[in-house]
Amino acid sequence: MISEQPIDRLPRLADPYFRSGWLNAKTKGGRDFGPDGSDMAYVSTPIDERVGMTFDGVGDYLSRAEADWRSADSQGTISAWIKRDAAGVSHTIISSADTGSLLYYIQLTIFNDLLLFVQKDNDTLGSVLGSTTLAAGQWFHVAVTSSGTAWKLYVNGTAETLTELGNNGDWLADTTLRDNICIGMLCRSADVNPFDGTIKDVRYWSRELSADEIKYMYNAGVPDDSLSLLVQDGIQDRSRYVHALTRSGEIVVGHGMDFDGVDDAIDAGDIGNLQSISTWINPDTATEQILRIDVDKYIHIVAGTVTYVGITPVATYVNGAISTTLGADFWQHLVCVFEEDAASNFELGWDGTNYGDIKLRDVRAFSAAKSADWVKELYERTRIFY
What we know:
With 386 residues, this protein is mainly beta. The chain folds into two domains: 18-221, Jelly Rolls (Sandwich); 227-385, Jelly Rolls (Sandwich). It is 6% helix and 46% strand. Strands 1, 3, 4, 6, 11, 12, 13 and 18 form an eight-stranded antiparallel beta sheet that branches. An eight-stranded antiparallel beta sheet has the order 2-5-15-7-8-9-10-14, with no helix packed on it. The longest helix is centred in the middle third of the chain and has 11 residues, at 211-221. The chain is elongated and about 75 Å long.
């Protein structure tokens, strides 16, 4: 389990078997960010948040009317991050069912604090029940896979010991007469098993993911203990420390931060000792100020070269590779690794005297020195947005 909210990671969108995904911070509401485009609509008033969607355990859910959703799929995978507000008998994560009866449905749910997958097609009923207690108030990554002949359940990247009732692996192709997809409720002739808590990053693949792939997804979402600051849009710090941000000038924020080079800056205050900083950056010219960590300790660009003042550099990376060269007027990924230093007055957009005409997105500061492999992976994961 993890107590902090999981980090947002989009799946590998080049995977042709990834078909649908909902409730990731990159999307709003019930919009599907996968290629199927199976957008859902609100029922009642779940609270739409950047950390997922919170359901009240009574009447909140997301729903889409769709006959025989993914009915050609004889195998597949469903995964999600979940955090319940209270323990309960049954909390539905995602389901697909027939609203005219009780006889046809699949359901990934939590039953008596254990992960449960159920598939029913008229008189054929099967289920698998997990073994890990999913306590309230904590985030868990859960998944179910089907090979077409057997189901597996995973909690936090580890396969569950199963209690089985007819583990036949029947999947969507074997479940007829379905007319909906729902998140947070089992939508049959009577809506039952509402989810009480927050659901985030629900994903669907039309193939059985391997144990290693499930483990990778879990590990990718676990918060980095060394993350001291995460400012994606200039509005708030999304790290667990939630440092207060003070904006000066008329800086444009929202989908990133646009500093005018005249009087725009963002002050995060004292964020502790640092060894690494990463950001996406688009400088207006070859000489611009980027940030400072304290008085007379800053990083800027001089004639296209990343330069440190009062800070001892260890390694500098541009677009995932060792380099100190930054171009003007286009987006690049920059990571600065340096000897541990106190960031007693961390500010973006100026060096304490001069301001930078720059655009920044996804600024991250770390108390640990990040490796070359980590830098390359972060660049590859985030470059799709630039």
